[in-house]
Write a structure and sequence with these properties.
The protein is mainly alpha-helical. The chain has 12 helices and 2 strands; from the N terminus they run H-H-H-H-H-H-E-H-H-H-H-H-E-H. The chain has one domain.
Amino acid sequence: MEKMMMSRFKPHILMLLVQTGYTFLYFITEASFHHGLNTYVYITYRHFVATLVFLPFAYFLERKKRPKMTWLLFLEISVLAVLGVSLTLNLYFLSMNYTSPTFLASMVNTIASLTFVISVVLGLEKVDVWSLRGKAKIVGTLVSLGGVMTMTLFKGPKIQNISSALVQIHGNPHIHENWIKGSILTVASCLTLSVWYVMQAYTLRRYPAQLSLLTWMNFLGTLQSAVFAVIMEHKPIMWKIGFDVDFWCIMYSGVVASGLMIFVQMIVTEMKGPVFVTMFNPVTTIMVALLAYFVVGEKLYTGSIIGAVVVIVGLYLLLWGKDKDLEYAFKCHQDSNSVVDGESKNKSVVNDQRQQV
């Protein structure tokens, strides 16, 4: 019984750990950017570290499992690297210069709804609109999007901080100066990341070697980001990293965020699909909002709280609908097996009777 429970909730536990990792990523990257770390340089170094760390594991552990690389597959992985690494992250971390960690964590919740819609269009996700589970998935998607709109458009009264910030993040005085620009950049990054999740599910079918795919994406993402960084940043001094918060930010981001967490997401994507993976983003929203309020002393508004609650209700309606889909599919599978077993028994009885005759 315990094994069955662990097997059933293993994807849930893995995704909760991933979201915890993303929560710390928000704050360590914000601290580094305030310290002066260049966004383009950070993304390049981050994926270079991930490539170096995971290359040996991918090479030795997946030698027999890794499919042959073709030009078509290489092109497909290159597009994945653009969507999941160079383009998405450059848009995403640029938006951090104009908004806040809480806002970013909130907007990321749109990824689940966007991924769901794209998956339905492409046939990865099935929706029975006449069933209760199908209606729950549709309503959940609409409710979660409504919650995100609430967080974006309605601030409401500010909640008074209970105490002074435990951690002070000092930095660029021009930070958080253009909320509209930051919102556009964030939405664009969410859209490209949603496409990445769906495309990754397709690629894993043709290239079922998670570590190798992870390493290829990081390697190609490093090259793409390096070219973009050189174009955007001409000062060589910006590439110099000291043994300080910038160094630890790059190491954590490379090994944990671009390595372990993406690897775990690939495993869960194969088990549950891309929509399931994105459903756990509200966990990060809650954790970031709490830490930003209690630890960093960031302003918190009632609109953000109301919107976050609405988003979570919507996403877990969607999760409930998906769980019921799995139960329904399992029941249908059992029923079909029972029919096949019954037909086999009838055939064996007929054969026995024939032999007796």
